TrEMBL record:
This is ATP-dependent RNA helicase DbpA. Belongs to the DEAD box helicase family. Residues 3-31 form the DEAD-box RNA helicase Q domain. It comes from Acholeplasma brassicae. The lineage of its organism: Bacteria, Bacillati, Mycoplasmatota, Mollicutes, Acholeplasmatales. Keywords: ATP-binding, Helicase, Hydrolase, Nucleotide-binding. One of its GO terms (molecular function) is RNA helicase activity. Residues 34-204 form the Helicase ATP-binding domain. Residues 215-375 form the Helicase C-terminal domain. A motif (Q motif) lies at residues 3-31. GO terms for cellular component: cytosol. The gene is dbpA. InterPro entries: DbpA/CsdA_RNA-bd_dom, DEAD/DEAH_box_helicase_dom, DEAD/DEAH_RhlB, DEAD_box_RNA_helicase, Helicase_ATP-bd, Helicase_C-like, Nucleotide-bd_a/b_plait_sf, P-loop_NTPase.
Length: 494
């Protein structure tokens, strides 16, 4: 087994980014996938959630990017907007020192703004199939230079009815591309898709290790539906998790559980498919960054979303199929951490529990319902944790801020600002070269530019008295996110 990323003979900027991001050694799936993609093989990855799948394909694909090309070279298809955003961020961070520009293209976001960004140099596009086809038909995206196509969560694409759109996209990319398909399961339609469009693909199955299985403990309570509402608060007090996701089968059930916990001052947040995209992303980010301990959700939150350090999963409603159960509990015990999954089972749900235990071949033990005494004894520790200041979790990209500064310039497309104008002004600063300039994003009235190699302050100070495109501009340090501000506040108060 490969012990370090250096053994893959990756280019130095990639290795540097992996070090900053805390990648110490390759996971099982990464050890198998990276060499296969580097050797130009088509690859099918059948792997559990939380195994490092995104990095497994992103690392070798970015290793092949030709920076000077203007048209996209890598296309990643995802079934949901949330997953597209997450994958975009992961690829951007891994390619940070390569100055890779990554665009997310999905619905519920401005088509015109996406089209404007796609006119600029873009190396990687992460897209949902429907919105991508809109851009193809509108001729606002050029796929002629695509060398790598990644189909992420292929079985979910099939389940959500997007497989015909995926097939349509395949007719618009070059024939001789390298294809990578990721799927937790391999339904017949996915097998047929791979047989038709992939050339002698290498199947890589990353099996759960015994160590990982043992780190996720699975239990259930036998409880009638009408008693679940009382049980949920007792379990949260007794278990006293740092964070928990409570899964329900329907939006109505989510609303009911949310109201129950809210009335009992648990301060939860909720997530389901009927919420606006903006609200859904806000909920995911708030929970991901530790602003809330309890998330009540339908399965929209279970598939593929990268939320680390969830110590407890509660199935308030037991899912009706094995795939949903696996993806739900896969939110816990990720990346070597330990976790626990607890299901509430009524008499009528035992048949689903039996199917789950039979197909997973894993033991799910019954627990005794917490007594009033159990809850009373646990209450002090629970209240102490509730009163403590929440520990804010930072994005993976936060580590880059020590040597990368993002600057904002108050000029954009409406004043005909071009990347070459920014590069020219910065390269005229003493000791600065083009290699110190990261991703440049030009909007209608604003421009953002990343300065690498710890030279951000030098550039910031110099641009206060240096004209850009013949005029002095207001140049400022890009605003911190609300999570960075909260992180600094909690850090300073400790």
């Amino acid at each position: 087994m490969v012990k370090s990323f250096e053994q893959f003979e990756l280019i130095e900027p990639l290795l540097k980014a992996l070090t900053v991001l805390g990648y110490e050694s390759p996971t099982d799936v990464q050890s198998l996938v990276i060499p296969a993609i580097k050797n130009n093989r088509d690859v099918i990855i059948k792997s559990k959630t939380g195994s490092g799948k995104t990095a497994a394909f992103a690392i070798p694909v970015l290793n092949k990017i030709i920076w000077d090309k203007k048209e996209p070279q890598v296309l990643v298809l995802t079934p949901t907007r949330e997953l597209a955003t997450q994958v975009r961020d992961d690829i951007f961070n891994i390619g940070r020192f390569l100055r890779i520009k990554v665009e997310a293209v999905h619905g519920k976001s401005s088509f015109d703004n996406q089209a404007k960004q796609l006119k600029q140099r873009t190396h990687v596009v992460v897209a949902t199939p429907g919105r991508l086809i809109d851009h193809i038909l509108s001729k606002t995206i050029d796929l002629t230079a695509i060398t790598h196509l990644v189909i992420d969560e292929a079985d979910e694409m099939l389940k959500m009815g997007f497989i015909d759109q995926v097939k349509e996209v395949l007719t618009h990319v070059p024939m001789n591309i390298q294809m990578i398909l990721l799927s937790a399961t391999m339904p017949q339609d996915i097998v047929e898709l791979s047989n038709l469009h992939m050339v002698n693909p290498q199947l890589i199955v990353a099996k759960d290790s015994i160590e990982t299985e043992n780190k996720l403990l699975q239990y259930y309570y036998e409880v009638e539906n009408k008693e679940k509402s009382d049980l949920i608060s007792s379990v949260l007090i007794v278990e006293n998790p740092n964070s928990a996701i409570i899964f329900c089968n329907t939006k109505q059930s989510v609303d009911e559980v949310y109201q129950i916990l809210n009335r009992k001052s648990f301060s939860p947040i909720k997530l389901h498919g009927d919420m606006d995209q903006k609200d859904r992303l806000k909920v995911i980010n708030d929970f991901k960054h530790g602003l809330y301990r309890y998330l009540v959700a339908t399965d929209v939150a279970a598939r593929g979303l990268d939320i680390d350090q969830v110590s407890l999963i509660i199935n308030f409603d037991l899912p009706r199929n094995i795939d949903n159960y696996i993806h739900r509990i896969g939110r816990s015990a990720r990346a070597g951490a330990s976790g626990k999954a607890i299901s509430f089972i009524s008499n009528r749900e035992y048949k689903y529990l039996d199917k789950i235990t039979a197909q997973t071949n894993q033991k799910i033990e019954e627990l005794k319902i917490p007594t009033e005494l159990d809850v009373k004894q646990a209450l002090e520790a629970f209240n102490n944790k509730q009163e403590k200041t929440k520990q804010i979790k930072m994005d993976k990209g936060f580590e880059f801020k020590q040597e990368i500064m993002k600057l904002h310039i108050n000029a954009g497309k409406k004043t005909k600002m071009r990347p070459s104008d920014i590069v020219g002004a910065i390269c005229n600063i003493k000791e600065l070269t083009a290699t110190d300039i990261g991703v440049i994003t030009i909007l209608d009235i604003s421009t953002f530019v990343e300065i690498l190699n710890n030279k951000g302050e030098i550039v910031y100070q110099a641009l206060q008295k240096t004209p850009i495109k013949g005029r002095m501009r207001v140049v400022s340090k890009a605003n911190k996110t609300e999570y960075e501000i909260a992180y600094e506040e909690t850090t300073h108060t400790k």
